[in-house]
Design a protein that fits this description.
rod-shaped; 93% helix; mainly alpha
Length: 149
């Protein structure tokens, strides 16, 4: 690669030296070369403008294609996903409402059971324990106590 760069620089250097030599040797050569350079630059400018127009058209085509592709494929999929997410949120809210209802029902049932069922059972168990203790006391009244031994 470096070899070709060297050759290219050598060719350009030789052409520049030839141009300078002809410019001093022949005075009409300068005007003719100036006119030729203007024509060449004008042609290159026209070519570059045409290439820029072609590149701009290609970019516009690609942008239009990407926009159309996005509208035809991505947007419907996003809409479908949005619908599914909305349905999922509705279902989740419904489940949350049912869980809240169940929690309230369980809390109410627990309070009812604690007040109406467990409290009387505890009272009866306390009365039974008291009656048992009283029966033991009455039964041991005539018997010698452990302290008398």
């Amino acid at each position: 690669m470096g070899k070709w760069i060297g050759i290219g620089l050598a060719v350009v250097g030789i052409l520049v030296l030839l141009f300078i030599g002809f410019a001093y040797a022949y005075p009409g050569f300068r005007e003719a070369s100036r006119d030729i350079a203007i024509v060449i630059l004008a042609m290159l400018q026209i070519i570059s403008v045409l290439l820029l127009i072609a590149i701009l058209l290609a970019i516009l085509f690609v942008v239009n294609y990407v926009r159309r592709l996005a509208n035809e494929t991505v947007v419907p999929q996003i809409e479908s996903l949005k619908t599914k997410v909305d349905d999922l949120l509705d279902t989740t809210q419904s489940i949350t409402g049912k869980v809240q209802e169940t929690t309230t029902t369980v809390s109410t049932t627990t309070s009812y059971v604690a007040e109406r069922v467990v409290t009387p059972v505890i009272r009866v168990a306390g009365l039974m324990a008291g009656a048992r203790a009283a029966a033991r006391f009455v039964a041991r009244r005539g018997a010698p106590s452990d302290l008398d031994k």
